[in-house]
TrEMBL record:
This is Carbohydrate ABC transporter membrane protein 2 (CUT1 family). GO terms for biological process: transmembrane transport. The chain crosses the membrane at residues 12-32, 76-97, 109-131, 143-163, 184-206, 243-264. Keywords: Cell membrane, Membrane, Transmembrane, Transmembrane helix, Transport. Residues 72-264 form the ABC transmembrane type-1 domain. It comes from Hungatella effluvii. It is a multi-pass membrane protein. One of its GO terms (cellular component) is plasma membrane.
Length: 279
């Protein structure tokens, strides 16, 4: 029995290592290619060991190419603003969904759930028409509103699950002491759902950082483009690619997400797990 348990443990770890290597290999390949020359990047069969690593792509990116940092700055503006807006709206709407129960409540939840089933492409035409009517095409404000609208159904339901875990007696005690509805929400309830707010904010930031379809459809001016759309339209040519530079951009572009996961991973997991516990 002891040998069987050891064998099962070895098999389990071997399988986990294989899965980990499979998932991390693309990132490793991007990192290795960023240290190659463009000629070496085109070699076939490809070289897995870089014989003469070079930092030329990184030097060119930080000293010659100014467009990249324009896209990078725009990405921070859009992702950060979207995360703040989505978190604030989820706090308000999630509380309403959790505390105000009426006959249409189930239909609202069904609408939020069904909204997750439609791909982004299916709503781009209507989004373009609506934003065009209010003169928000080719603006960061319009892009932020469009991305936030797509994230709100899930984030509202997520925040609602956190509020469901807060005893109503706390709110009743606050109202007895003279606190109004908003005072109760922001002074009593919101401090208790900080893990949920953090989870929603990180989720919104990461999805906004990687957004491509909204940015490429709603933004036409090059100076307003975000990183994904800017890289696709600026650095991917019709006949040939500078793979070394493209992979360097990919590495630099993933740094904020790696930092977010490194510092906030345990808080995000704690928040998501806590939101699943009610009562």
């Amino acid at each position: 029995m002891k040998r069987k348990r050891i064998l099962n443990g070895v098999i389990k770890y071997v399988v986990l290592i294989i899965i980990l290597v499979f998932l991390l290999f693309p990132l490793l390949w991007v990192l290795l290619t960023s240290f190659k020359t463009n000629m070496e990047a085109y070699k076939f069969p490809p070289t897995f060991i870089v014989k003469n690593p070079t930092f030329q792509s990184y030097i060119n990116l930080f000293t010659v190419d100014n467009d990249f940092f324009t896209y990078y700055k725009n990405n921070f503006i859009v992702a950060g603003s979207t995360a703040l807006l989505t978190t604030f709206m989820a706090i308000i709407s999630g509380y309403a969904l959790s505390r105000f129960h009426f006959k249409w409540n189930k239909w609202i939840i069904a609408a939020f759930t069904s909204a997750q089933m439609f791909p982004v492409v299916s709503r781009l035409i209507s989004l373009y028409k609506i934003l065009g009517d209010v003169n928000l095409i080719n603006t960061h404000a319009g892009l932020i509103l469009a991305i936030a609208a797509g994230q709100l159904p899930f984030t509202i339901m997520l925040m609602s699950s956190f509020y469901d875990g807060i005893p109503r007696e706390l709110e009743e005690a606050a109202r007895v002491d003279g606190a109004g509805r908003f005072g109760t929400l922001f002074r009593v309830v919101v401090p208790l759902v900080k893990p949920g707010m953090l989870a929603v904010g990180i989720y919104a930031f990461l999805l906004s950082w990687d957004d491509y379809l909204h940015a490429s459809t709603l933004i036409q001016t090059d100076s307003l483009r975000t990183l994904s759309a800017g890289v696709a339209l600026r650095y991917l040519g019709e006949l040939s690619y500078d793979w070394s530079l493209i992979n360097t951009i990919s590495i630099v572009g993933t740094i904020p997400m790696v930092i977010v996961f490194f510092f906030f991973q345990k808080y995000m997991i704690k928040g998501l797990v806590a939101g699943a516990v009610k009562g």
